[in-house]
Amino acid sequence: MAHSNDTSSTQFSISDYLLWEKQNFYSQTFPLSAQYALVGVDSLIASQVVYGLIVLWGLSRKRADKKPLITEGRWALRVYNVIQVALSGYIAYLATSTYLKKVINQGHICQPMKVIIESDPEEYELETYTTWLFYISKWVDYMDTLFIIARSKWRQLSFLHTFHHCTMIAITWLAIHYYPCGLFLIAPQLNAPVHFVMYFYYLLSSFPSLTPFLWWKNYITSIQLLQFVTGIVLTVTCLSRQAMGYLTGLCFSFLAMFSIYGFILIALFSSFYIKTYNTPTKAQASSAESYSSSDGKTQRKSKKEM
User: Fold this and answer.
1) What's this model's pTM, rounded to 2 decimal places?
2) Angle in degrees, CA 80, 92, 96, rounded to 5
């Protein structure tokens, strides 16, 4: 009987917590987010439908073995990469001005996601804007897939590529819609600098004269893996501290999902790294394809993000 009462007590405790989380994190759109575009539920649905149609279009062209729609697109790619470098750099600056600034000045690694806006409205305005811009950047990333399809680079239209793009926009939508402040900002803080380096590499690799100096290409995936591990360690640490009663204000369901997602990405990117760089014949073929084609023009290697 005692065992039954303990179980009942635990069940009520979990139920009460889930109710609290629903009321505090999922009852309404975050007030400061409402002023921005593409934060409604319809935008989330649209993002998945649009990307699904893009991928289906690509797969249909792949099955039909269609010729590239773009045969000479280096300048279009260069312009796109410049935009991505600038956007990623700006987001990294904003994240440093918000999340990292608090870590350095206040020692707050596990910053609460449930905030009282009236206490410091300008600070939370900037955090919300940073999260929104990070979310918008995931819409811009859809161009990666369009370029792959337009250039018929079918090996690059992989499960890792498509899974990562469609899920990242969903995760960032959750954040901007419900809790764009606090601990979520570790995502742009870690991801934006990695994207800056990645797209800067793609920009440089579009110039044939620079390719002999781009020996550090394989380190990009290593840096991506490092960001996933760092994000998981920080998130799990903060969740553990909240579970032990040292912290409040974190959305357990989102951060648990965020951690699981990180483990999935580690597995997928590790597989990509092993197949690409740890198999000598594939590594040599990859290098050859990445740097030059039969007509001597630079091509982009399969690019993986986050």
Assistant:
1) 0.86
2) 170
Q: Is residue 145 part of a domain?
A: yes
The domain in which residue 197 lies consists of 32-291
Of residues 164, 165, 177, 195, which has the active-site annotation?
164
Q: Note the pLDDT tens digit of each residue in 113-171.
A: 989 898 889 999 999 999 999 999 999 999 999 999 999 999 999 999 999 999 999 99
Q: Is residue 170 situated within a structural domain? A: yes
Would residue 11 count as lying in a domain? no
Q: What is the pLDDT of residues 214-260, one digit of tens each?
A: 988 889 999 999 999 999 999 999 999 988 888 889 999 999 999 99
Residue 165 domain-assigned (yes or no): yes
Q: Is 108 an annotated catalytic residue? A: no
